[in-house]
Amino acid sequence: MTTTAHDRARIVECPNCGSKNRVLAAAEGAPRCGACSNPLVWIVDASDADFGTVADGATVPVLVDVWAPWCGPCRMVSPALEQLATELAGNLKLVKVNADVAPEVSSRFGVQAIPTLILMHHGRVIDTQVGAAPARALRSWLASRLPADKGKTSRADHLSGEGGRP
């Protein structure tokens, strides 16, 4: 039996209540804690076979990290990306693509250097950033590019600290 993106899941601990939650790689909306309903961090790995389902089909903005295990700058920027995904839980999905095992994804986006970050919304590219950057620069880049929801605190406000986040 083959595993699809709809079947793959990660166990994520809720930062609010500590409950363990099964978070699917591909799902409608954004994951929420089953116990307290707070948003959960959404970080998934994608391959050529399931990128369309995992990233293109997402209803929240997606930050694609094209990386490789042998790439020092990729390993340096990874913790910052995971921190940003945590800060934007419920508002951003981080999709990690290993360029060595997903050449079609790299080709689709014209990736010539890694790390390459691709910000997408509803399957469309919003912006691309090539190379490692410090967390503060990545936070600023995301804040300036993420769309705001009407009637809600904008994602940029969450990142800049104006939406109730320090």
UniProtKB/TrEMBL annotation:
The keyword ATP-binding does not apply. GO terms for biological process: cell redox homeostasis. GO terms for cellular component: cytosol. GO terms for molecular function: protein-disulfide reductase activity. Residues 40-147 form the Thioredoxin domain. Keywords: Disulfide bond, Electron transport, Oxidoreductase, Redox-active center, Transport. Coiled coil: none annotated. It comes from the Bacteria. Belongs to the thioredoxin family. This is Thioredoxin. It comes from Conyzicola lurida. The lineage of its organism: Bacteria, Bacillati, Actinomycetota, Actinomycetes, Micrococcales.
